[in-house]
Amino acid sequence: MLEVDREQVLAHRIAAQGLHREEADAAALAVFDLGLQSTQRDTAAISLAARLPGPVTEESFADDPRFVLAWTHRGAPHFHRATEIGQVTAALVPLGEDDAMARMGWQRKQVEAAGMSATDSLFTAAKAIRKVVTRTMTKGAVSEAVTRIIPDGLSYWCRGCQATHILEQLMRLAAIHGGARLEAAAQPATLAPLTGRPRMRTTPDPAAATAVVRDYLRLHGPATPSEAADFVGTKVAVARRMWPDDLAEVRVAGRTAYLPESDVDALADPPEPDLVRLLPPWDPFLQSRDRALLVPDRARQKEVWRILGNPGALLAGGEVAGVWRTKGSGRKRLDFTITAFDPLPPPARAAAEAEAERVAAARGFADLRITWS
């Protein structure tokens, strides 16, 4: 059994996730095998700027027909290759009622109280979304229309909006099955029919679900069933039903973890992570579920992953070496505050400032100002 240390694992993930900038085309990046999360505006473009050698802008990426934005893993918005959205949708069909209920996450109790199974709730909502979303519509308009045709238990009264809405997590999980995508870069959130509007599939596809876990292990491995389950948004027992056969056991940080056998050689001898990158919140590198391995110090973990308002992460020399935030001054200048956990050598600081220029350009700012703290 191969035994590796955490530095070796991080170096392997940096290479696997394309942070060495060896690909010139976004569609060729391995991170799209799993999907690129885009929780806030510009975060996906900044993730690409960290991986592509050429210029990247939110507008050019959002308008690229090779990609589709949709609520997918855990109900979070992800960009996927348009040619693979059918496979992604198949992978998101729950493998059973336990899987369906687990995916409801923070709204399980409301779904349970509705008097329907989680599976029935999911596809009842999906059918309603398919009926309603026949054109481009804001999320609020979709919610209002869907609420009129779903059972009362699947909606709730929102005091802030003074309106009745479909359960938020249910809507996010059901939209892709209802043939709805998200409009990239639209504010407020806006839905539209998927191109070709594929038929709704309710039968589980274990092979597609297993492919998601395998992709997680390729990009975030070595990892455990618990970590894969957390990414998918399901129970560990369900993740074990998705578990691939072609895996190798690896010892890392005193525990057994797994990755595809085909990746063992790459893990054993990864390229040196002698690079500096500014990663946005929810960047794939920060999506690994073993946060204690990524950032061993607990105080620093709390700086990187906050309950509200995550900063970006400064990646230097194979380590999460600090955090960064920005504040726009109109549309003219972007102000950066970069906080290094430990003193950085001058070349690393200079490289971080060059990366800040790339981030500013990706966000459409011609000027920037950098403050180190």
UniProtKB/TrEMBL annotation:
Protein name from the UniProt record: Winged helix DNA-binding domain-containing protein
Instruction: Name the InterPro entries for this protein.
Output: AlkZ-like (IPR009351)
Say which domain of life the source belongs to.
Bacteria
One Pfam family this sequence matches:
AlkZ-like
